Amino acid sequence: MKTSYKIYVAVLLAIFTILGIIEYNTPVPLSWEYSFSKSDKIPYGEYAVYDMLEDIFPGKKISSSELPLYNVLDDSAKNTNLIIINKYFAPDTLETNTLLRFVARGNTAFIASEDFDGNFSDTLRINTKTYYAPYKANDSTGLNFTNDELWKSGSDYSFNNGSVDNYFKKCKDADVLSINSHDSAVMISLKFGKGTFILSSVPMAFTNYYAIKNPQNDYVFKALSYLPIADTHWDEYYKMTKHKASTPLRYILGNDSLKRAYYLMLLGIFIYMLFEAKRKQRIIPVITPLKNTSLEFTETIGRLYFEKGTNKGIAEKRIRFLFDYIRTNFKLNVLDHDGEFYSSLSAKTLISIDELKELFTFILGIQNQMVLDNATLLKLNTLIEDFYKKTH
Fold first, then answer.
1. 62 and 205 share a domain?
2. Which residue among 99, 213, 283, 307 has its CA within the 20 to 30 Å range from the CA of 384?
3. Are residues 233 and 311 in the same domain?
4. How many domains does the structure of the chain reveal?
5. 169 close to 163: Cβ distance less than 8 angstroms
């Protein structure tokens, strides 16, 4: 058993070592997941954009949080920027009211999202729509600014087809800051109280993929330059991945390398259990239980007495066992054969006094005889057995 166990362990270690070497030398596949998180360096993360903030807002405090707005925004904050970038933005009533109060006090909120929904869009009376065009392999969508100082001459900022197709269909009382190649608004400015909302319908334009791709990175820098130079808070709560569970198993299954290792470990455990369950076991001998030979012993003793012709001895032992039975079970002195003895024994056994007197008279007669014949011994046995049956 120990030898087979060592073989299984050695095989598993060899497999893990080989897979580890292969995994170490295998290039990590590029993830095209939408995350919009400052921690992700994948194409659609925000690591590069977040890194720009110190250059866009020099000398100002840059902070971030994974908490909802009502836990982050200070009611006394003024001249502060808030940046939210995600594919979808639909805060609940409490979050919307907190955001509206924040901007109304004189702060600026930059929100980039393909879709705005809920109380937020209803309050600002905005609505986005997607431009659908026939797909062409080399097609691209252009963006540019309406401000002459920011306008890119010669050609628009070019983005991959399908990445910046959303635009503002409804934006009453808003100043248009940027448009697409179809002259539709993709970035607008809305005054609210003492502050300003700057909204963009093309969050993909603010991801790593375009922030580090020339000349599109200039678009990101110019768009964020509409915010005043002030302390800036970056949101990490309203993200595509914020609802993912953070359990260890979820983390393992979310990583391709760890997931393969996890499944391989389960497979190894299963194989070990399968082969270990089939190992040869020592045969357990069948032990025959001891027989109850009391009956055989009694019959042997009986035959011995009968063959020896000691009827008197058998009768005396039968009588002695009977007397012991009466003393043990009925607590009576069998040596006093008076009227009280018969009355007490009759009351306890429900046997008539006459029958009891017959039994004990017969016993007394046997005790006075020196030799017993077979007929007398059989009658004694019949009377005693009858007594036992009636008292059980």
1. yes
2. 307
3. no
4. 2
5. no
Are 354 and 228 found together in one domain?
no
The CATH number that applies at residue 133 is 3.40.50
Query: Residue 129, CB half-sphere, CA atoms under 13 Å: how many?
Result: 10
Residue 166 and residue 73 share a domain: yes
DSSP H stretches of helix in 177-255:
208-211, 216-224, 248-254
Find all residues with CB under 8 Å of 195, minimum gap 6, and list them: 102, 103, 104, 105, 106, 107, 108, 109
| Structural domain that includes position 343 | 295-391
In-domain check, residue 179:
yes
Residue 15 domain flag: no
Q: Distance between CA 95 and CA 208 in Å, rounded? A: 28
Tens place of pLDDT per residue across the chain (392 aa): 455 666 766 777 777 777 667 666 666 677 888 899 999 999 999 999 999 999 999 999 999 999 999 999 987 788 999 999 999 999 999 999 999 999 999 999 999 999 999 899 999 999 999 887 665 545 678 999 999 989 988 788 989 888 899 999 877 789 999 999 889 999 999 999 999 999 999 999 999 999 887 767 789 999 999 999 999 999 999 887 654 445 566 567 666 677 777 787 888 777 777 666 665 555 667 777 766 655 565 566 566 555 655 778 888 888 888 888 888 888 888 877 777 888 888 888 888 888 888 888 888 888 888 887 878 888 888 888 888 888 87
